[in-house]
Structure formats: C-alpha cells, structure tokens
C-alpha cells in the first residue's frame, strides 16, 4: 500500500529562503533511501478557527508561517527501513540554527486510503487534517471518492487522503491534539491539488453552492477539522508519487 509522511511546521516568515535551502538539501536524502516524492508548501490562506486550526496545531506565533509538507513512499516498510539511515546521514546535519522550531513540528505516517491519481505538477494545494471514528474507515473512503469527483469537475487536478498508521504523540504538539482526536478515532491527512489559486478559489466557491455536497455528511469530525491553502515551493521526485 502506498504510504506518505505528513508534516505541519511553524517557520519564521523571514526564514523562507533558509527553509527552502534546507528542504532542497534534504530531499535527495529521502530519495536516496526510497522516497518517491517530497513536497513543501508555504502557507497562503490558512483559516483561523475558534477551537482548532493549523496555526494552533503548531502553536504558530505572529511572525511565523505554517508549512505543509509530505514525503511519498512506495509502502510503510520502505519508509520504516529508511528512517534509521536518514537519521545518521551527514547531509541531514544542519549547517547552523534550524529555520523552524522542531519541538512544535507535527508529523505522522499515513496509508493512502484514496487517491484519484494523475495531476502532475500543481500550483496550489488545500490541506486538511481531521479525525474519523475507527469503524467508519470505509465511509470515509466512500465520501472521499464522491467529493473528489465534484472537486475534479470544478478544476482540481488530484485528491489524496491518508489514514493514520503511525501518528506519534508529542510532548508539545501532535496531530491527535491538533484535531482533538478521541480514543477510538484515527487522524486523517489529505490534500487537493489545483493548477493555480484562481482555479481553486472559483472551484471552492462553486463547491460551496453545489447541493450534492450536502447529500452525504462526511465521516470525519467536521467542527474540529483543520484546513489551509498553500503554495508549493518545492516538488522533488515523481509527479504521480510513483503510480504509473
């Protein structure tokens, strides 16, 4: 089963160039150990929620921007085998201070539960994190398939959803507390790829008015789900995540 690692990272806004330089340096390390694609996206339209949101998820400060990132693997076994090698690779050593606060970074590993495939390079992405009751995994997949068709009708290039398979609990921040996941719930992480922001804005507007979006409620906990729009700043590797 295809697998990806998802990350949400608070980066000092003034450190964008330094962060991108670091990402360019480490992406080949992932690739050398079996990763198929590494994507880094800079926060552009990150919603502010009353209870949960992506900024609260990483305790972002006023001078920080949220980064959404993922690393695509052929399967979890490849990712797990690569982890120890990556940690001791000299190329992973920072040349100075990190351009982000690692203690507030959140990450997890996800089985790809739904993927429309295709899409190629993209110019904008909407990211989403939520939680789903463990017994509703198939309902989650079914809902993803239904809404993905609507997104693609309105210009989306690709829709991907992942089911939490290795989502650690952190000391300061983590994915479960980001969406207030309860016992018996699994964290999900997904994204929608668009050709550009204008297409995304028009597509989202049309989706909000489409009555088909209200025909079946999502399986995930909507009030606590967190969303954001992002601009890609690095896309290294196979554009279809290794699926041909």
What's the topology here?
Elements lengths: L2 E10 L3 H17 L4 E9 L8 H4 L6 E10 L2 H12 L18 E10 L8 E10 L3 H17 L4 E9 L8 H4 L6 E10 L2 H13 L16 E12 L7
Antiparallel strand pairs: 1-3, 1-4, 2-3, 2-8, 4-6, 5-7, 5-8, 6-7
What does this structure look like?
The chain has 244 residues and is of the alpha+beta class. The chain has one domain: Alpha-Beta Plaits, CATH 3.30.70.100. It is 27% helix and 33% strand. It contains six helices and eight strands; from the N terminus they run βαβαβαββαβαβαβ. It has an eight-stranded antiparallel β-barrel, surrounded by four helices. It is globular and about 55 Å long. The two termini are 14 Å apart.
Keywords:
alpha+beta, Alpha-Beta Plaits, about 240 residues, about 35% strand, 8 strands, globular, 8-stranded antiparallel beta barrel, 6 helices
Q: Which CATH class?
A: Alpha Beta
**Count of helices?**
6
Q: What structural class should be given to the helix and strand makeup?
A: alpha+beta
Overall CATH architecture: 2-Layer Sandwich
Radius of gyration in whole Å, from Cα?
17 Å
Please report which band the strand proportion falls in: under 5%, 5-15%, 15-25%, 25-35%, 35-45% or over 45%: 25-35%
Task: Please provide the count of β strands.
Answer: 8
Q: Report the order of strands and helices.
A: EHEHEHEEHEHEHE
CATH topology: Alpha-Beta Plaits
Mean pLDDT, all residues: 93
Distance between the termini: 14 Å
**Widest sheet: strand order?**
1-3-2-8-5-7-6-4
- Poorly predicted spans: none
Q: Report the sheet with the most strands, covering strand number, pairing sense and barrel closure.
A: 8 strands, antiparallel, barrel
Percentage of residues assigned to helices: 25-40%
Shape: globular
Number of domains: 1
């Amino acid at each position: 089963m295809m697998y990806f690692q998802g990350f949400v990272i608070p980066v000092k806004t003034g450190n964008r160039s330094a962060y991108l330089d670091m990402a360019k340096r480490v992406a080949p390390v992932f690739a050398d150990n079996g990763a198929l694609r590494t994507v880094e996206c800079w926060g552009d339209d990150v919603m502010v929620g009353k209870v949960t949101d992506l900024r609260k998820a990483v305790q972002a400060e006023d001078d920080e921007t949220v980064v959404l990132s993922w690393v695509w693997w052929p399967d979890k076994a490849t990712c797990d085998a690569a982890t120890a090698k990556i940690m001791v690779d000299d190329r992973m050593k920072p040349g100075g201070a990190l351009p982000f606060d690692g203690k507030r970074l959140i990450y997890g590993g996800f089985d790809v539960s739904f993927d429309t495939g295709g899409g190629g390079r993209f110019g904008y992405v909407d990211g989403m994190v939520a939680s789903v009751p463990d017994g509703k995994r198939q309902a989650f997949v079914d809902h993803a398939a239904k809404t993905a068709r609507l997104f693609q009708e309105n210009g989306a290039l690709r829709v991907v959803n992942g089911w939490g398979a290795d989502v650690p609990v952190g000391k300061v921040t983590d994915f479960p507390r980001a969406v207030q996941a309860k016992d018996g719930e699994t964290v999900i992480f997904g994204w929608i790829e668009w050709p550009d922001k204008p297409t995304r804005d028009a597509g989202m507007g049309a989706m909000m008015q489409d009555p088909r979006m209200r025909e079946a409620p999502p399986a995930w906990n909507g009030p606590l789900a967190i969303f954001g729009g992002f601009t890609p700043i690095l896309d290294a590797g196979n554009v279809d995540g290794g699926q041909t």
